[in-house]
Specification:
The complex is a heterodimer of chains A (376) and B (756). By secondary structure, chain A is an alpha/beta fold. Chain A contains 16 helices and eleven strands. In chain A, 45% of the residues lie in helices and 10% in strands. The chains are: A alpha/beta (376), B alpha+beta (756).
Chain lengths: 376, 756
């Protein structure tokens, strides 16, 4: 909607060469204009941000502001990224300054995992990145930063929103009344970062009313890696226009309406709910009804019994049936969110085992499953 | 009647009315309550909202589907009107109109109109028996949810109400039959935990219970949930988690002001060896500690507080009442929301005293003062406490009109004064207890391992020399025979000196290596900071590379940099893990996999194939440091690589993890030059090396890499966990195989590692 460059202020205590090169990397595709600066003392930093706030569309903070440069080490920087973010959020909530996206990044590997476990600062930052994503996942990161900046602007320019205009849900999709209630509360006293935080953390990033590409593929029963060309066609021509999420933040986070998918299935493929079909049958029906060739059904992971896939294993991202999945613990769960699962295979093989904890209620089941494996 | 009305409405051709399909009930139940435990907790909340003091959950034969759940409370119950307009009316607005409960003014906990769907979610049939205090009879309704099927009008499904004799004074009994899902013990426990958030603590101190003071039994705003599992008549009580963790407290502080105004407090702690005998400390109302003055205004005040020190499991270790670090962590987590000293007046909680963040006794403020810097931690976070005051006439304490808090008057001042002094006295008591002092010393000793062997050897040498001197003196004087065994003693001592000397060298080398490790740690972290910058520039270069040659160069640069980064990341991770002192059971496939990923490129550059294989699951070792595994695997790898380069073959490394009778086994094989028989025992000795001696001009690091300490370090790590390391028969096609056997983690340790 807005072709002007989005300006991000990037604060990092690393030396100027490192800082600038990182910023240049982010700016290179001409979508963002990232300006790197050192943190400085609280007073100078605060007044610089407040005086220039009209000229910036977002802030990227390095996680540890006080470790690298001599100046930072000497104690001139006495605050954390969290403190700065908290201060700006407070002023924005008070409507004393405009609200803008604040994201956190770090060069530490596994930082996201680490950060996920510390819940204190969760509502301060819109998103958290590992710096390696700046290059290895450049396009997505830039798209999400741009989307955040523009969403904040849009919200503050337009002002008037309804839950419906926030989510842009198609008329045939029912939304849990509690989501509407919550969004209604949030837009009544519109604080952009609270609305964005709710949408990202409770609606977009947790499967439930919206699903991501992994889960969409699982519900279609399609093996994405095996049917690349067909999968593209599937996304572009069939699924996209009718059930893709088009609401706020959809430019940065691609999601589909879970219920929309079921309706699409019932209208276009078969009146019976897709979960009743095995992946093979789903793909066969899709091929027949849509004429898309080259779609391959997803295969069962090791130790899985059912191929009525409905979700994706949190560790391998491969399709599994909920009956085969082991429930994991999720924080801050809302009633409209789906349970998340890990496959027994990934659990036993310790694939990405740092990234989740198993729900203790699965103990007995795992115990029995292990016995089965041993006997079989 | 309603059916008739409905038929009439259908005949009324001029108007249209909404009608509701009975299937909506089924749909609502399933969609509003995704999880069965949420459903149960909603029902418990309903009992709370009905001013119940006690609610009992009975899970009968629920190990398989189709069991029965009975939820019984002693709340106010429902009459026919309440049932019709509340329970049976969809989306009743009662909770919107009456946000607090009538008797105890509880803030309504249940969500709007969800309870009935909860029962539908849980089982196929519901029986409600409910009675109110002022009625002669009880009401009984049976609802068969199967009746609510799609394509039936909701108004046509009727549920007969019966009047039956009362079963209890008041309250509601929900009998949910034909449960849709099974309930295992772990799930029941989870529900129990889920609802315990609601519980108001009902810790009436034993002393007050026995005393004359009454709290007005029915006025008592307590709420207790009891939970039973009943399998074919065998009843198992699902335990009260709160109690059990308080029992593990490091110390319990208790105190009171008696009827005459005299104040006392005491500390009990099995862990620190403080018992109640002779342990009563007097608290004076006045300023002079040596003169006992009575409190004038407060009487019959009682407090009890459970005291925890976090991150110090070793303080708790005596007399079999130890606490695991996991348990302690759980208490610590719980403390985030529930610690502090809460005030109860006539049995009612008086907010905000003792809420998290409310420091009404200045406990936190005091402990932050500099003079307390070296004392034991005593913050609100360390305490779970309850202060009870009785004041039936409201003479001493006036409540503020908002019912939140007490007006600060003189009596309140006395109360704060008493508690302030009592907690201070308890703190001093703990600090001065011999148990605590000993444990502190033990800690300090443990952390201060002195490397004073050099001194000892020096002393020993001096002793040897002087012994020899006196020995030769005595020989001179011609008294032979007395020297029996002296030669042997001397030989033994000399041998000892040699061994000690070797150990000193070894320790010196280890110190150098440790220092180097720290320096590397520092640098690796610095290097990591360059990554995003280099990648930023690389990506700019990549986008702007014009010629094919440039593109190739940039690609190569990227690839090499990627490898460089994976090294840096691995070491950074290792060093970060190292700074965590806690040990964890380690699944060897996860450490091996990460290791193989890191060295893959380096290995393929040396033309070495690395494969790994695992037999069986749950290959958890006893708790160890992840970084120890990195040392083990890196040492094996660098030895193997050297052996392969020397053998000049197409290199192969195979890592196999397995388990056998309580041991976790790792075998590391290579097809290098192998180890000659005579060296097989010596490879684990310090300074044994097959590396060619470094040349004169060699750098320090070269010298260190061939130091011959690698396998020694590995074997020390393994042995410190009661494990074994030895050279094993290599698989076909391999020359050398190192085998490690380590104790397997216990089931409990594995569970703690895997579940939240």
């Amino acid at each position: 909607m807005n072709n002007m460059l989005n300006k991000f202020l990037y604060l990092d205590d690393a030396g100027p060469n490192i800082r600038d090169a990182t910023a240049n990397g982010l700016s290179r595709t001409g979508i963002l204009d990232v300006i790197a600066e050192e943190p400085m003392t609280w007073d100078s930093r605060e007044s610089l941000i407040l005086n220039n706030i009209q000229n910036i569309d977002g802030i990227i903070l390095d996680w540890r502001l006080t470790e690298e440069t001599d100046r930072a080490k000497s104690g001139a920087v006495k605050y954390s990224a969290e403190a700065l973010a908290q201060h700006l959020r407070f002023l924005a909530t008070d409507k004393a300054i405009k609200d803008l996206p604040i994201v956190l990044c770090s060069a530490n590997d596994g930082f996201k995992e680490y950060y996920r476990k510390d819940s204190t600062g969760h509502d301060l930052f819109d998103e958290v990145f590992e710096k390696k994503d700046f290059s290895s996942n450049h396009d997505l990161v830039v798209m999400q930063l741009k989307c955040l900046a523009e969403t904040y602007k849009k919200i503050q320019v337009n002002g008037k929103y309804s839950p419906k205009s926030v989510l842009s849900n198609p008329p045939n999709i029912d939304i849990d009344a509690r989501i509407f209630d919550r969004i209604n509360d949030l837009i009544k006293n519109m604080v952009p970062h609270e609305l964005v935080g709710f949408l990202l953390n409770q609606i977009i990033k947790k499967p439930g009313i919206l699903i991501d590409e992994d889960i969409l593929a699982a519900r279609l029963g399609i093996d994405r890696d095996d049917s690349q060309e067909g999968w593209r066609k599937m996304l572009d021509s069939i699924i996209n226009p009718s059930i893709k999420y088009q609401g706020l933040l959809s430019e940065g986070w691609t999601r589909w309406w879970a219920e929309g998918f079921v309706q699409w299935w019932k209208e276009n493929i078969d009146p019976v709910h897709p979960q009743f079909f095995s992946a093979k049958l789903r793909v066969k029906l899709i091929g027949e009804k849509t004429g898309i060739a080259g779609l391959k059904p997803a295969k069962k992971m090791k130790y899985c019994v059912d191929s009525e896939f409905w979700t994706a294993c949190i560790a391998t991202k491969k399709p599994i049936a909920t009956s085969d999945g082991l429930r994991i613990v999720s924080f801050n769960e809302q009633p409209w969110q789906d349970e998340q699962y890990v496959s027994l295979y990934a659990f036993l093989e310790k694939i990405h085992s740092d990234s989740y904890k198993i729900n203790p209620m699965e103990k007995e089941r795992i115990y029995n499953l292990k016995k089965l494996i041993k006997n079989g | 009647m309603e059916a008739l009305e409905k038929k009439l409405a259908e005949l009324d051709k001029d108007k249209v009315k909404f009608s509701v399909d009975a299937g909506i009930i089924d749909r609502l139940g399933r969609e509003l309550m995704a999880k069965q435990e949420t459903a149960v907790s909603e029902l418990v909340k309903n009992a709370y909202d009905a001013d119940a003091n006690e609610v009992t959950l009975q899970f009968i034969n629920t190990d398989a589907d189709g069991g029965t759940l009975i939820i019984e409370d002693d709340g106010h119950g429902m009459d026919l009107d309440a049932m019709r307009n509340g329970f049976m009316r969809l989306s009743s607005t009662d909770k919107l109109h009456n946000p607090v409960s009538p008797k105890f003014s509880r803030k309504r906990a249940g969500r709007k109109g969800i309870g009935r769907f909860a029962t539908q979610r849980l089982g196929k049939k519901l029986t409600i028996i409910t009675q109110i205090e002022h009625s002669e009879t009880a009401l009984k309704v049976i609802i068969d949810w199967e009746g609510y099927q799609i394509d039936r009008d909701i108004n046509l499904v009727a549920n007969p109400v019966e009047e039956i004799p009362k079963l209890k004074k008041q309250g509601t009994i929900l009998i949910i039959d034909a449960l849709r899902e099974n309930w295992k013990t772990s799930e029941i426990q989870r529900v129990f935990r889920y609802v315990s958030d609601l519980l108001q603590p009902s810790y009436l101190s034993d002393r007050l219970k026995k005393s004359e003071v009454t709290f007005g039994s029915q006025e008592d705003n307590t709420f207790i949930v009891k939970c039973q599992k009943n399998v074919n008549g065998v009843v198992e009580v699902i335990s009260d988690i709160d109690k059990s963790f308080f029992e593990k407290a490091l110390a319990v502080f208790e105190g009171y002001v008696d009827n005459s105004g005299e104040g006392f407090c005491s500390v009990t702690s099995k862990s620190l060896g403080i018992d109640l005998m002779n342990n009563l400390i007097s608290i004076t109302a006045g300023k002079n500690r040596d003169k006992i003055e009575l409190y004038k205004l407060i009487k019959d005040v009682h407090f009890k507080a459970y005291y925890f020190i976090y991150n110090r499991t070793d303080y708790y270790e005596d007399q079999g009442i130890g606490i695991s670090s996991i348990e302690l962590k759980r208490v610590n987590d719980f403390a985030q929301t529930s610690s502090g000293i809460r005030l109860y007046r006539n049995g009612f909680r008086v907010p905000p005293f003792g809420d998290v963040g409310n420091d009404w006794l200045d406990i936190d403020e005091r402990s932050n003062m500099a003079s307390h810097a070296n004392k034991i931690p005593l913050n609100n976070r360390n305490l779970f406490g309850f202060v009870e005051i009785t004041d039936e006439n409201g003479a001493f304490f006036e409540e503020t009109s908002s019912r939140e808090g007490l007006i600060i008057n003189e009596a309140f001042g006395e109360l704060v004064d008493f508690l302030f002094k009592a907690f201070d006295a308890c703190r001093t008591r703990v600090e001065s207890s011999t148990g605590f002092v000993e444990k502190k010393k033990k800690r300090e000793k443990r952390s201060k391992v002195k490397n004073d062997q050099k001194e000892q050897v020096k002393g020993l040498k001096e002793f040897l020399d002087s012994a020899e001197e006196s020995h030769s003196n005595s020989t001179d004087s011609g008294e032979k025979g007395e020297g029996f065994g002296r030669e042997e003693a001397k030989a033994a001592l000399e041998k000892l000196v040699i061994v000690l000397d070797e150990q000193i060298d070894e320790i010196a080398m280890l110190r150098v290596l440790a220092g180097m490790g720290l320096a590397i740690g520092e640098f690796v972290h610095e290097i990591r900071q360059f990554s995003p910058a280099l990648e930023g520039d690389l990506s700019v270069l990549h986008a702007n590379a014009i010629t094919e040659e440039m593109k190739q160069g940039v690609n190569r640069l990227s690839q090499n940099f990627e490898q460089f980064q994976s090294y840096a990341a691995y070491f950074d991770q290792t060093i970060r893990n190292n700074s965590k002192r806690e040990l964890h059971p380690i699944e060897i496939r996860s450490v091996v996999r990460k290791f193989v990923d890191t060295i893959k490129r380096n290995a393929s550059k040396s033309n070495i194939q690395v494969e790994s294989e695992f037999v069986g699951y749950d290959l958890y070792t006893c708790p160890m440091h992840t970084s120890e595994w990195n040392s083990i695997l890196f040492n094996f790898y660098s030895n193997a690589r050297k052996a392969i380069i020397k053998a000049d073959v197409q290199g192969k490394i195979k890592i196999v993890g397995s388990q056998d009778s309580g041991k976790i086994i790792l075998e590391f094989s290579d097809n290098g030059i192998g180890i000659p028989e005579e060296n097989k025992e010596r490879v684990f000795n310090a300074f044994f090396t097959t590396s060619t001696p470094v040349g004169r001009g060699a750098s320090n690091s070269e010298e260190l890499l061939g130091s011959g300490l690698g396998l020694k370090i590995v074997s020390e790590i393994i042995e410190s966990y009661d494990g074994e390391i030895f050279i094993f028969k290599p698989p076909i096609g391999f020359k050398t195989c190192f085998r490690i056997e380590l104790p397997k983690a216990t089931e409990e340790q594995i569970e703690n590692e895997q579940y939240a």
